[in-house]
Specification:
Radius of gyration: 17 Å
Shape: globular
Number of domains: 1
CATH class: Alpha Beta
Helix content: 40-55%
Oligomer: single chain
Largest sheet: 8 strands, parallel, barrel
CATH architecture: Alpha-Beta Barrel
Strand order of the largest sheet: 1-2-3-4-5-6-7-8
Number of helices: 11
Distance between the termini: 13 Å
Bound molecules: 1,3-dihydroxyacetonephosphate
Number of strands: 8
Strand content: 15-25%
Length: 246
């Protein structure tokens, strides 16, 4: 049985003062039935780790370098994230793929780098509106997942996967539960190629998840949680989503 997981992706939002209030509210609303985590800007990891240590709320980063160390100005290694006890690192978020030209192969290398330091990569896949309209949704996400599967082999079972249709991110336009379920089911079929990955890997949905649509999405058999952007910055919304997950 896969325990549901709700992850807040703060993106490039927050301040030390605002974060402290938000995290206090999230921790204060426990216990949760689902696993709960926040992925924060790297510069806030120290504060976040200090505030969440010993609570049931976990934390992580929004990206990780594919390199172990070296002359890579601006990058942060998985070993550095591990020093801050990160449980998760997002890799291949569509905003990284789009604005930083991250390829499927680079995303796979990042997932590998995270796992090597005991950090669970949350691998994001998803199609653009043009690709959906052209009937390419399943081909696109299959290609994105295949690169990771090839790099990880049996360790594919140790990732979290997130389906985030690009057209649903920050637009208020959510995939219907049926649309999301159909892509999640296809992804789970593909996971069958690696050991027990199909049974173990949690496949999260992301894209305009809100308190009022979370329950119907999370009721789908292959939706194992949510990756939440904008709504994760509002304590009451995020807490309601976490509660909808279990
Ligand atoms: P929104 O929830 O703001 O649509 O963002 C989704 C997302 O990109 C989470 O990673």
């Amino acid at each position: 049985m896969r325990r549901k997981l709700v992850v807040g992706n703060w993106k490039m939002h927050g301040s030390r003062a605002a974060n402290a209030g938000l995290l206090a509210a999230i921790v204060g609303a426990r216990p949760y039935g689902a696993e709960v985590a926040v992925c924060v800007p790297c510069v806030f990891l120290g504060d976040t780790a200090a505030q969440l240590a010993g609570s049931e709320v976990q934390w992580g980063a929004q990206d990780v370098s594919a390199h172990a160390q070296g002359a890579y100005t601006g990058e942060v290694s998985a070993a550095m994230l591990a020093e801050y006890a990160c449980r998760f690192a997002l890799v291949g978020h569509s905003e990284r793929r789009q604005y930083h030209a991250e390829s499927d192969e680079l995303v796979a290398a990042k997932a590998q780098a995270a796992l090597a330091q005991g950090i669970t990569p949350i691998v994001c896949v998803g199609e653009t509106l043009g690709q959906r309209d052209a009937g390419l949704t399943e081909a696109v996400v299959a290609r994105q997942l295949a690169a990771v599967a090839q790099a990880l082999g049996a360790r594919l079972a140790d990732i979290v996967l997130a389906y985030e249709p690009v057209w649903a991110i920050g637009t208020g336009r959510t995939a219907t539960p049926a649309q999301a379920q159909s892509v999640h089911a296809a992804l789970r079929m593909q996971l069958q190629t690696a050991g027990d990955a199909a049974a173990r890997v949690r496949v999260l949905y992301g894209g305009s998840v809100k308190a009022d649509n979370a329950a119907e999405l999370l009721a789908m058999p292959d939706i194992d949680g949510a990756l939440v952007g904008g709504a994760s910055l509002k304590a009451a919304e995020f807490i309601a989503i976490c509660r909808a997950a279990g």
